[in-house]
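Cont'd.
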Amino acid sequence: MKKIVFILTAIVSIVTLSCENESSKLYNGEPAIYFSNLYGEKDSVTYSFIGKNKELDTVFLNVKLLGYVQDTPKKIKVRLIPEMTTAVAEVHYTSLQQEYEFPSNTYEYQLPVIINKHPDLNDNLLIIALELIENDDFKIAFPNRVRARVMFSNIIMKPAIWDAILAPVFGVYSRTKHEICMDLTGRPFPETTQDFNIERNVWRNFGWLCNSYFADNIVMDNDLVPPVRILPWF
Amino acid sequence: MKITKIISLSIIWIILGLISLSCVKDNSNYDYREINEVEIEGIEESYSAVMLDTFKISPVLTRSLEQREDDLEYYWILYNPTQTYNFADTLARTRNLDILVNTIPGSYKITYRVKDKTTGVSYRKEFGITVISELQRGFLVLSELDGKAEVTFISEAGKVYESIYKNINGEEAGTNPVAIRYMYRSPFDYVAILCDDARGGVYLSSLSFKKMFEYKELFYEGLQVIKPQAMTSTEYYGAVSDYQAYGTQIYVVNNNRLHLKDIEYSTSVEGVSTKIETKFYSEFPGDYEISTISFHALSHEAFYDMKYKRFMYISNYAQPNLYVTASKPDGVFDPADVGLDIVWGKYTKSARNKYDCNSIFKDDNGNYFYLKFDMTTKSAINPTKKVSIPEEYQIRNAKTFAGNAVEDYIYFALGSKVYVYDCILNQEREVYDFGAGKTVDNIRWHEAVIKSRVMHVCTSDASGSGKKGSVYEMNVANDGVLSIKNAYTNVCGKVVSTHWKN
């Protein structure tokens, strides 16, 4: 038994001594980039031209730097992924550049993807898929965070948060109500709970105003057969 | 083989295995160099500062390798330790702190952060600070002076700040002053000045008196008609602080239409809990003309519709529904069809969990009535008393009233005199006379410490020009008789509105 204790003590001492406390040092690895808001299955951003009153718009993809900020602007290399892309370059979007410039003295860059409001979007959801490529300036930080999909359309779609978040403010969903409320408020509905919460009372006020509109005006929901009047919900 | 030997060999092999596994070769391309660290000295553990006064700190910075400061940047960040660190305020981004203190009085923590721009490494020093102010608690007075809104503040210590809005902001608050209200809901803290002019008035920071917003900026939707008439908030008479003007729900009456500003809320913004300030909703829809007189207690409020002469209430603050309170045809009066014009009213002395209100009404024939009701259930206001006020009573001609939560009296003023109306006995009597040439323009029970039995009485003198308005802090005896405690003479114009600020 004494032998066991002796051997264990020796091993623990060796292990402890091998864990030397290192004083504070400066990271000096090579700079690398990744899409900071996208990872794993969440590799896409969505966009609808509905309610935007724009013929083209820019979707920004947030690219983040791992490592130190750079003294001079550096190049980011980007590649289109044809097999995952359904949109047509110069028709539905402005062709991607091969390289974009990551500014100096910052950890973040908004990579622009310019999309066009094309009639094809009235019936389809189109996709632009792209990925970051390693070059002389930047390594790839995380292999599962280099791809991004921009999904865009010009179709009214029921916001995913309607039933849980928007229904208490705007009542039961209807496509006709959706369109009229967007006309009245001058803006599209929020697509995430966070977007709603940041302006919760602004949306409530919009809900009050829209409710008054449907109280004062007889509006039929023509998506239903036979059409039914959209009633105020408060 | 002995069992102990087997155990010992097993343990040795397991440990050796773990050690070898833990020694994985690091193939990364990192290399390391020493950094020029920063040591912060010359900052005390705690400080005291006076609001609207200068405050300076000059720290001593020592570097470990090379004494230089051109590669550093600085942050002086103030936190409220009673809340989370999310509500930070950057006081300065300079090496030394040299600021005019405009932080709300209270105890705070300040973090001095020095960041090495080359390495991105930050160094911190945290210390305490207590901010005090003479502008924190006191009496707000809004008066009309040469047609313009004049703001006077009398601090709790008795120091008078005349023309405080104009002196701090370098402009007039407006013309035709209507009302001044203190609205508190941490961390948002305003004073509202309402004026019946094109601008409508302004909102000030409660503690610096600096203008924050225009009247119309605190609405989600633009107003078609700018005509502010009254602003009210939930009132609460509690055990800790006798009176609190809660900012949970705030109401404004604009052009006889009611608007609600609901309580602020917190939400996560990019992972950080953030307080979101709210604004006034659009007017409640419906066929009504809301009176400037309304009744407020904690979560209990009643409004009066002048058009149909009935009480109304809000059931759900998130919905645009202004309801008529339940009809009670067999009551001493029917709250859903009072049939009278409201003159004045206020939440008053109530038994536990009851919300009694005193009020004065009149009919089309010039008859006046005292009405008492209980708004414990605001959807079914309970009428408890209706008494005809005798023709010879002065209260019929009164222009300013005051009530409180400790007694069933209504104080009112007419000419140079202050009177009290006993709601139980239906009697009135004079309690003070300021004498010929003086007019009592405004009276208000001192709500901050309600049991101290102090009333503010504001008078004006018709003779001469300039500031002929005075504010008297008066002791109120148990029988209602007044005596002057402190007098602040010729400090304002003709007073139109007052409020206590906590």
